[in-house]
Amino acid sequence: MGRPRTPLLDRERITTTALELVDEKGEFSVPQIARRLGVQTGSLYHHVDGRDGIVELLRERVSAGIDIATLDLRPWDEALRAWARSYRAAFAAHPRTIPLLMTNPVRAPRVLDQYERAVSLLLDAGFPPPDVMPVIVALENVVLGSALDLAAPEAMWELADDTATPRLAEALDAAGERRADRAFELALECFLSHARRRLAEHRSAG
């Protein structure tokens, strides 16, 4: 019997299967991937560096949806705004990966390169080195929190009796559609305003 035209296992298939499991269950294990692919668990270790290696493959796969060209835009705040929107869209497509990826150190070279570009953007704009990582992490908090919000039910507040919480009922009515999108844009603008103010203060102090 000749060899199959398509290899039974490779990193792409392993990553795709792991992502399917996380999208469905919020988690994965190496034996679960092996069962779904119809192979022995040990066979996966010929292609990936265990569970941690698969987590980094997932990080690369989801992060590939982020348009890193946005970090080449100028001025810096327009670059961050565009990057944040693209970042949010990429993770909103797979929100259940967020808790998994946020509790594992970043090792994927392509993802580290994206951080390198973001750091360079802020340093070139004049941000002092101690402020750079707090600015990036704060932006990620806005982005990833909003990506999770997009996965939440549209009606997050169920009021059994409007008269018991009349102001909440009125506010929910007034919010209308696209609540999550509007909340994200508000948080993003507040973040950028604060970052601009910090940069201006640093420049005036210098």
Structural key phrases:
Arc Repressor Mutant, subunit A; mainly alpha; 0% strand; 2 domains; 68% helix; Tetracycline Repressor, domain 2; 10 helices; 206 residues; flat
Describe what this molecule looks like in 3D.
The protein is mainly alpha-helical and 206 residues long. Helix 1 packs across helix 2 (30-37). It has helices at 11-25, 30-37, 41-44, 50-63, 76-92, 97-102, 109-125, 129-151, 166-175, 179-205. It folds into 2 domains: 1-48, Arc Repressor Mutant, subunit A; 66-205, Tetracycline Repressor, domain 2, CATH 1.10.357. It has 10 helices and no strands. The relative contact order is 0.10.
Structural class: mainly alpha
**What is the CATH topology assignment of the largest domain?**
Tetracycline Repressor, domain 2
Q: In the CATH hierarchy, what is the superfamily of the largest domain?
A: Tetracycline Repressor, domain 2
Name of the CATH architecture of the largest domain: Orthogonal Bundle
Helix content: 55-70%
- Shape assignment: flat
Distance between the termini: 74 Å
CATH class of the largest domain: Mainly Alpha
- Helix count, DSSP H or I runs of 4 or more residues: 10
Mean pLDDT: 93
Order of helices and strands: HHHHHHHHHH
As residue ranges, the low-confidence spans are: none
User: Cα-atom Rg, whole angstroms?
Assistant: 21 Å
- Extended strand count: 0
Tell me about the largest β-sheet.
Answer: none
How much strand? Answer: under 5%
Pfam families: TetR_C_1 (PF02909)
GO molecular function, one term: DNA-binding transcription factor activity
Organism: Streptomyces cyaneogriseus subsp. noncyanogenus
Protein name: Transcriptional regulator
